[in-house]
Amino acid sequence: MKIATSFLVASVSLLAACSGAGDASFGDEAGATNDTNETSEQALGKPRASLDHPDFVRKMRDPANYRVNREPGAQESICGIDDLQHVNSYTGTLGVSVAFVNAHKRPVGAMETSPTSGKYCSGTLITSTLFLTAGHCVDSTTVGDYVSFNYELNAAKTALLAQSHYQITGIVEDSLGGLDYAIVRLANNPGATWGTTASLATDPAVGATLAILQHPNGEPKQIEAGTLASISGNYLRYGNIDTEPGSSGSGILNSAGRLVGVHTNGGCTASGGTNSGVRMSKIAAVSGIL
């Protein structure tokens, strides 16, 4: 009954977000905001298209029938040359140090249907039992899935390290305020082993260093880093941080290792564009946890 009640609360919250705000993130994208640190395409006379992930758009339109694509899609993208590096063989050349990666990699996990299945999304432990990911990574069948920690290659990239798997027992928050984020509860207190990552409800400055620890294509954990290109509506945008399918839900870290956003979707090409993620400042304004 505890699991069922948890999902019921999350479902009611999601329906309220949909009915009360409509496509809330569309509204923020379409109009100018008063955020001091925001760069506005409209201020430059350019139309502002929605940055919402297509799966999240589908979820907001019909949350009861939405199902996560557990075979990662193609919305995340490479910005020019793919320079993702595996965490245990990282060379320290992407803008953050090897020590930074070692200090912040452990709370990052990969979502999976079962301990023997492939991975489909990424996320971060924010308390001993709560795991932050993208809203489009969660649906009414998520309870019973798992999160794997320590899904990494060794330094020689010849073998996987031993993984630990924790079952998802409830959905605590889901897409509140029409934002593409979710918080799920995990069994057996994984934070006691793998640690947690603190969040910061203040947007980084344009040009600030950002890092994303992620499971691109459902692969072992990797690091990519770059800088904040702009802030647009609900989203941080970055044009030099590679992501791939399966990276959705990864935490966006500032130079101090604090969560300042949740990566949600791609927009990079070989010659330009930006990837993006939901701002923690926006999430913190509606969340009862962050």
TrEMBL record:
Its EC number is 3.4.21.-. Residues 29-53 are annotated as: Disordered. Residues 33-42 have a biased composition (Polar residues). The keyword Glycoprotein does not apply. Pfam families: Trypsin_2. InterPro entries: Peptidase_S1_PA, Peptidase_S1_PA_chymotrypsin, Peptidase_S1B, TRYPSIN_HIS. Keywords: Hydrolase, Protease, Serine protease, Signal. Residues 1-21 form the signal peptide. PROSITE patterns: PROKAR_LIPOPROTEIN (PS51257), TRYPSIN_HIS (PS00134). It is an enzyme of class 3 (hydrolase). Belongs to the peptidase S1B family. This is Serine protease. It comes from Pendulispora albinea. The lineage of its organism: Bacteria, Pseudomonadati, Myxococcota, Myxococcia, Myxococcales.
